[in-house]
Amino acid sequence: MPILGITAASGGNPPTAVDYLVVAGAGAGGAGGNFTNIFGGSGGAGGFRTSTGFAISGSFTVTVGAGGAAVAAASGNSGSNSEFSTITSAGGGGGGLQNVNGIAGGSGGGSGRTAGGALTGGAGNTPSTSPSQGNAGGGSSAGTNAASGGGSSAAGTQGAASNGSPLLGGAGTSNSLSGAAVTYAAGGAVYGGTQVNGGANTGNGGSSNTQSSNPGSGGSGIVILSYADTFSDLSGIGGTLVKTGGGTTPTTTAGGKKIYVFTGGTGTVTI
Fold first, then answer.
1. pTM for the whole thing?
2. Is the distance from CB of 107 to CB of 154 less than 8 angstroms?
């Protein structure tokens, strides 16, 4: 449920810096055809940004980006941005329809199959961040099938997709800020006869499907904040922001850290 205006006593010892993971919503795959050789490209991963020791004070906005919706007989929709304070991760680009380039984003979507000249995958790391938040989607050489979307840590690859043998998207990146190792922001794959959604709070790209007009939707993003457990809990979480576990207490504690995992919505967080 949305957390609306929850406040608690800060305890008088608020954190002054946090470690963060901000993953955006991923792009959806482009539509394919039903045994008609109309192949769409798969969706690009949501932008992936993480760092330690980020200074905070007072209050700041947290937004968790939604994944791009899949659309029949069209290029995939791009994902939505995720934000924490001044840090923005860009939504992943949607996969292109046949004869359509992939869409740019945090990671770019893969291009569709081309019946003519070569096509390009959508550009990654758009807009540019340092370190890079993602990579380009795969392109399609003349006469080949669809290409995959790019992942957060490896560019998408091009080549033919055959039934039951997926053309994989770019690899995601493992991160342990939640207290356990999880891989986020992988590019979508191109499948024959299978529709695969990116998955909630993964930032993974949606698949394309060479034998159906129904591709996979992009996975939603996630925002995780962590700081030493010697500091007090957050004092307020507002708007529609959803935190795992509810309230203003940490989602979990591990390794001497208080960990807050936000999985949807947008709102103001007060320390």
1. 0.91
2. no
